[in-house]
Amino acid sequence: MKDYLQNRFSLINIELDAKKAEMFEKYYNLLIEWNEKFNLTAITKEREVCDKHFIDSVLCESCIPKNSVLLDIGSGAGFPALPLKIVRPDLKVTMIDSVNKKVTFLKEVIKALNLENAEAIHIRSEELARSSYRDFFDVVTGRAVARLNTLCEYSLPLVKKGGIFIAYKAENVEDELKEAENAIRLLNGKFVKLLKIPLPGSDIVRSFAIISKIDKTPEKFPRGKGKERSDPL
Known about the structure:
Elements: H1 2-10, H2 18-35, H3 46-58, E1 69-73, H4 81-87, E2 92-97, H5 100-112, E3 118-122, H6 125-128, E4 137-143, H7 148-155, E5 159-169, H8 174-179, H9 181-186, E6 189-198, E7 205-213, H10 227-230
Parallel strand pairs: 1-2, 1-4, 2-3, 4-5
Antiparallel strand pairs: 5-7, 6-7
Helix pairs in contact: 1-2, 1-3, 2-5, 3-4
């Protein structure tokens, strides 16, 4: 697996040394082991996990400033936060998920890989936004969590002024961007750019919507009680 990992990462101009390749291999083994007990991912074959989870997670890592404090919302099995942390040890990473079993898995990976400045917390983003973490993070990421208008309400309150939110999306995201214009405005965000990056060796194209935080989000957001999903901004 190490040789395949190093080869695939080289295609996206990321040099994966032997230590980092070994960390990804350990991560994969833990993912498969825990997946037998909990439903973490439907993708389990080595090369598919490498391409569709590991590589996919780091396609836009060059957009993340050095030494950023990063929050990943709805981390699940750790994507994109853990692959980002492995290739970018300079990042300080917090992962949150509302499912405690998934958080337990994330903590196990952090321990097994000896990751410093990485933590996993069992909490919803709406709750976290009512804590000292509000307006705190340099970068917030969200992958396969919700439609963009909903995801913005979960994420932007946690981004500090001048920071960015990166939404991981499928290729055709233009409708979601249009739909999210009102949410971005109300939450004091500003759409910066849409990156479309092909997944090497496939016909899959990933989209990354990058939204900056131009001012503090009004205190009434996020609204909570499921309104982010049931009645999007």
